[in-house]
Amino acid sequence: MSSDLIVVGCVSDDPFAIDVAHFLRQRWEISDLVAYKQFANSEFCPRFISDEQDFEHIGNGLRGRAVAIVSTCCGEHARNSRAMRNFLLARAAKDNGAERVVLVEPDLYYSAQDRGPRPEHGEVRFQRTVRDYKKFDGQPFSSRLYADLLAASGVDEVITVHNHSISVQRLFDRQFNGRFFNLSPAGLYAHYLTQNEVLRPHPDSKGLLVCAPDKGAAPFVEEVFAELRAQTGRLLIGQAPGLLLMTKERSGERQVAIEASPDSPHALADVAERDVVVFDDMVRTGSTIVQCCRLLKEAGANRVLFVVTHFYSSDEVKENLSDPAIDEIITTNTLPTILNRDMQGRLRRKMLVLKIEKWIANVLHREYQDGKAPLHRPPYSVDVSSKNPRWRDIRTGDPT
């Protein structure tokens, strides 16, 4: 792919899109590339800005270029509005000669609606029951519709981050002919933990355990563990990181019983006086995670950290995760509103955000600019409130 890549945002003032373009060293501002017009009847009509005196390249101003549309859910536009903007921006790019259109959507829209009411509506790891089909009776298979509409609009490839749904992954991979990139943040988390929890362990800790709160999270946590072992393998450290796998049995809508899995390399008895890092892809209520973290604290954990990729900052989440069983929360800005201190609320004293715009820029650089080496190392920045004790370390020069 040629280096003729331009990055635009779903909206003109999306800070995530602006930063991705900046870290790719794009010389144009996003707002100088697209006019985000809205007609009096409220309809949206984007227009890629061209030279008003150029009458030779009408409808071909983007010929030979790859256009990356960065779409994150922040600001005044809701997901439904942003989805429609994605369609129209992709169509505008293709109707003006773009060779490739890439959608960069860190938290892929409609992923939670990954099944429908019939057997052909979604592929899952478990055997669907009549009750499972009934839950979706009367609903659309929305994730397939979203994929269909993106393709029909002109999107050729999709980049997302830590998507949890096997159904969505397989659907998008087929729809976009293998050009669906579900980026794993395992390496980012392992780098941060190596620098801050392994090389600089907390006082009185007897080492680090990484923990999967349930079977669904286990493959990703095992990936983080493998990355940690690779990054710490040649380091002189007191105790190598360990792996703890939990399992849960759901007895009601929000009632679960959690215990160590029989297949876990470490048992709950090994938790005593160690720092434990619990991972999940998303948090919507936080109740199950809190239950898991309480169990770890009762087993004698020195500290319990919760690492989550997609953080939905609802009142219920903030209420639940303020529980003293969780000492620190590490997340990413796939949902950029989490950078707003008001959205963190009472959690700001223990929340730390890994900003991933550099990581996304590295991926685009590699895939669409023939980049042989990443532009940025490490591929993240750290954002933290001054109310968080880690703020002082970061302000004075955190090694990350």
What does this 3D model show about the protein?
The protein is 30% helix and 21% strand. The strands form three sheets. It has an eight-stranded mixed β-sheet with strand order 10-9-8-11-12-13-14-15, sandwiched between helices. It has two domains: 5-183, Rossmann fold, CATH 3.40.50; 186-355 and 378-395, Rossmann fold. It has 400 residues and is of the alpha/beta class. α10 links the parallel β13 (328-332) and β14 (351-355). It has helices at residues 15-23, 79-95, 130-135, 142-153, 166-175, 186-198, 218-232, 287-298, 315-321, 341-344, 357-368, 391-395; strands at residues 5-9, 34-38, 44-48, 66-70, 100-104, 157-161, 180-183, 208-212, 242-250, 256-260, 275-283, 303-311, 328-332, 351-355, 381-384. The radius of gyration is 22 Å and the shape is globular.
Give a quick summary of the entry:
The protein is an alpha/beta fold.
Give the biggest beta sheet. 8 strands, mixed
Unreliably modeled segments: none
| Helix proportion | 25-40%
User: How much of the sequence is in beta strands?
Assistant: 15-25%
In the CATH scheme, the class of the largest domain would be Alpha Beta
Shape: globular
Number of helices: 12
Strand arrangement in the largest pleated sheet = 10-9-8-11-12-13-14-15
Give the number of domains.
2
Query: What's the CATH architecture of the largest domain?
Result: 3-Layer(aba) Sandwich
> What class would the helix/strand composition place it in?
alpha/beta
What's the pLDDT, averaged over the residues? 93
Distance between the first and last residues' Cα: 32 Å
What is the H/E order? EHEEEHEHHEHEHEHEEEHEHEHEHEH
Number of strands: 15
Rg calc: 22 Å
Q: What's the CATH topology name of the largest domain?
A: Rossmann fold
